[in-house]
């Protein structure tokens, strides 16, 4: 099987993706709302799902709202806000048990989609806008989430490296927005932002479980009361090489351990033919415990408390993260750059090749054991226009040669070096 097993359809502005299967005892539902990352909307858009989770027009009080989930046999309900490429994505998730396994007097998939449809299209309001107390409380929640990133210096350094690397591009923005923009948001302005988001966003609804595309389409027609129109599509960023010299940014804070991060433009994205080789490149460089960064920077040279790399296939970048003694900046920088040079030689041990392929294969096989992981993997096709099944990607990875990995390494460019260190005296 090379293509996805999901069946595709459409209702109004919502693209439908249904995987009929009896493998799971639950229905897994995910609704994605996507919109371009913009400085003027990113914070208010991030706040919207926090407020939507507080209540609906029929159950405006949060306690009664949550009791509805209990009535659905303890259905799970949650959301995430993140970015893919230059898009800000809000994802609502629900998991509810299949009716066959309980003595329910209501069809649970229908009830769950009705619940989700109401959350999205009929929020709790007062005087024509979101409830004041909910907006005030959730502004505090969002503020704490953003402050938590500053307090977690590993996350903070990772975010700051991306900010500097994409200083003039939308990707510099954090998907949860900016602290400075929270205070000016009012219930009325947030309601206006919500209505604008609802009119412009790309909507994709996934359902995995013992159902059919036809049933889901019928249930969605009942549950989602939206303006008519055609689905919006995603525009993935052009994969661009770095401009100019490598930038080195040194930031001082009250820290005892240095954080050395590097941003690499690998000039390959998820939709490209050489994406499987990019997965291998990241795996050998720093994706796993047998990788070059882990073994040479952390183990042999004892220069880092941690050293790893992460691939972002939607943005066409790879980032290196390491925690070091502050005085070891120059040594650690040199040895990390030596690993990047080593990747360009095209000489990789059998252990590096075989173990990396095995680790990636294990991950791709594990996807099949989780409905939510399968949904997330398939959503890549929506974002990029490149449809490939997990099995297809697995086979492509197994066929990757050393020469193909070297080709990725040779077009990879070091763009930004970011170092978080202590405050210098004097």
TrEMBL record:
Highest rank taxon of the organism: Bacteria
UniProt keyword terms in alphabetical order: Hydrolase, Metalloprotease, Protease
Residue ranges constituting the Peptidase M16 C-terminal domain according to the UniProt record: 185-358
InterPro entries with a match to the protein in the record: Metalloenz_LuxS/M16, MPP/UQCRC_Complex, Peptidase_M16_C
Alphabetized GO MF terms: metal ion binding; metallopeptidase activity
NCBIfam families: YfmF_fam (NF047422)
PANTHER family in UniProt: INACTIVE METALLOPROTEASE YMFF-RELATED, METALLOPROTEASE
Record-given protein name: Inactive metalloprotease YmfF
Annotated organism of origin: Paenibacillus nasutitermitis
């Amino acid at each position: 099987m090379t293509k996805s097993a999901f069946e595709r359809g459409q209702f109004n502005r919502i693209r439908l993706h249904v995987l009929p299967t009896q493998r799971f005892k639950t229905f897994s539902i995910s609704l994605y709302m996507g919109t371009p990352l913009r400085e003027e909307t990113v914070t208010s858009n991030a706040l919207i799902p926090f407020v939507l989770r507080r209540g609906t027009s029929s159950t405006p009080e949060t306690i009664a709202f949550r009791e509805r989930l209990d009535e659905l046999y303890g259905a799970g309900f949650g959301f995430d806000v993140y970015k893919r490429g230059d898009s800000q994505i809000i994802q609502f998730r629900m998991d509810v048990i299949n009716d066959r396994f309980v003595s329910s007097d209501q069809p649970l998939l229908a009830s769950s989609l009705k619940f989700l449809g109401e959350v999205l299209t009929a929020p709790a309001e007062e005087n024509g806008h979101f409830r004041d107390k909910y907006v005030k409380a959730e502004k505090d929640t969002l503020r704490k989430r953003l402050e938590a990133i500053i307090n977690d210096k590993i996350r903070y350094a990772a975010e700051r490296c991306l900010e500097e690397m994409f200083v003039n591009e939308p990707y510099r923005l954090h998907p949860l927005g900016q602290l400075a923009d929270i205070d000016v948001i009012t219930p009325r302005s947030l309601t206006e932002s919500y209505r604008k988001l609802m009119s412009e966003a790309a909507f994709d609804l996934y359902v995995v479980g013992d159902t059919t595309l036809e049933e889901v389409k019928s249930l969605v027609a009942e549950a989602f009361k939206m303006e008519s129109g055609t689905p919006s599509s995603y525009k993935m960023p052009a994969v661009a090489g770095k401009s100019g010299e490598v930038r080195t940014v040194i930031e001082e804070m009250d820290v005892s351990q240095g954080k050395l991060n590097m941003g690499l433009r690998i000039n390959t994205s998820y939709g490209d033919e050489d994406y499987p080789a990019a997965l291998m490149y990241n795996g050998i460089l720093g994706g796993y415990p047998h990788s070059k960064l882990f073994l040479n920077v952390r183990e042999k040279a004892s220069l880092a408390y941690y050293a790893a790399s992460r691939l972002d296939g939607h943005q066409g970048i790879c980032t290196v993260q390491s925690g070091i003694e502050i005085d070891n900046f120059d040594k650690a920088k040199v040895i990390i750059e030596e690993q990047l040079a080593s990747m360009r030689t095209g000489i990789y041990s059998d252990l590096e090749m075989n173990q990396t392929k095995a680790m990636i294969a294990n991950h791709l096989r594990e996807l099949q054991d989780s409905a939510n992981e399968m949904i997330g993997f398939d959503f890549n096709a929506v974002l990029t226009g490149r449809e490939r099944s997990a099995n297809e990607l697995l086979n492509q990875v197994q066929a990757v040669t050393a020469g193909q990995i070297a080709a990725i390494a040779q077009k990879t460019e070091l763009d930004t070096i970011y170092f978080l260190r202590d405050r210098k005296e004097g």
